[in-house]
Write a structure and sequence with these properties.
Blueprint lengths: L4 H18 L4 H9 L6 E3 L15 E3 L9 H22 L5 E6 L1 H7 L2 H10 L1 E6 L2 E7 L11 E6 L1 H6 L1 H15 L9 H15 L4 H8 L3 E3 L9 H6 L5
Parallel strand pairs: 1-2, 3-6, 6-7
Antiparallel strand pairs: 4-5
Length: about 240
């Protein structure tokens, strides 16, 4: 008879999903176990049609594993969007953007699964390295494989994003600091160029070398831990004290 490896794999996956779906009857048992202070294993949530890994239900669910995004497909889409952004800027200004800013929101990232983060990595010229789908670090893309210089970035994280996706902020910080240390020219690496300028300015303003070096590579800004706004409403009300 006619056989096809892809069809067989799809049928086996469908059988696995069907088995997991049948386990939804365990929700009452799991609830009783939780009320008895027993351990409930964690697992991703969401609609099982959108995310079949949400099955079986009755687990201690979370939004999704922040170590797994952007996945390879999302990274490719982010690279395409970043290239379009740079090309459009170049066509209108005759030069590449020195720095691009992004605002990261927790709920938006839950929807697009890291498309903004993927653009950041592409502008910097790094590619995520994965282990069983989880991002563990980066490899630096050679300049000859890029369509633009390494564009600097500036990130503003909402307070909820800071709390929900700290690993993502650590990854972006690692990527920026890695690129800033590359032995490349100012014309090809705007991250390094801008960092060196800021480092010189900080030293001129009295900062010691190690502090100036660290701060000059910092690109992520957010509210202080525990806060979820910038206090602007308090500043406006106190305008007589400006």
């Amino acid at each position: 008879g006619l056989t096809n490896a892809n069809i067989s794999a799809d049928l086996e996956l469908a059988t696995e999903y069907a088995d997991n779906l049948a386990l939804t009857t365990r929700e009452i048992d799991q609830t009783l176990r939780a009320l008895n202070a027993e351990y409930i294993e964690p697992g991703p949530g969401n609609d099982p049609v959108r995310n079949p890994d949400a099955l079986p239900t009755g687990r201690n669910f979370y939004g999704f594993d922040q170590r797994k995004f952007p996945d390879e497909e999302t990274q490719a889409m982010g690279a395409s969007l970043a290239d379009q952004l740079v090309e459009d800027y170049y066509s209108n200004n005759g030069a590449y953007p020195s720095k691009v800013s992004y605002v990261l929101w927790a709920m938006e990232t839950l929807r697009h699964h890291g498309l903004m983060e993927a653009q950041v990595y592409s502008l910097l010229g790094v590619a995520p390295v994965r282990d069983q789908g989880r991002i563990t670090g980066f490899k630096v893309l050679p300049l000859e494989e890029m369509n633009h210089p390494r564009v600097d970035v500036m990130i503003h994280s909402s307070g909820l994003y800071r709390d929900t996706f700290p690993y993502q902020l650590e990854l972006i910080d690692e990527a920026v600091r890695t690129v800033a240390e590359l032995n490349e020219t100012n014309e090809t690496n705007y991250v390094r160029c801008n960092s060196l300028k800021m480092e010189d300015a900080l030293i001129a303003n009295g900062y010691n070398e190690s502090t100036a070096h660290y701060l000059s590579r910092s690109r992520i800004f957010s509210e202080a831990p525990g806060n979820y706004d910038n206090g602007m409403e308090d500043a406006i009300a106190a305008s007589n004290t400006w």
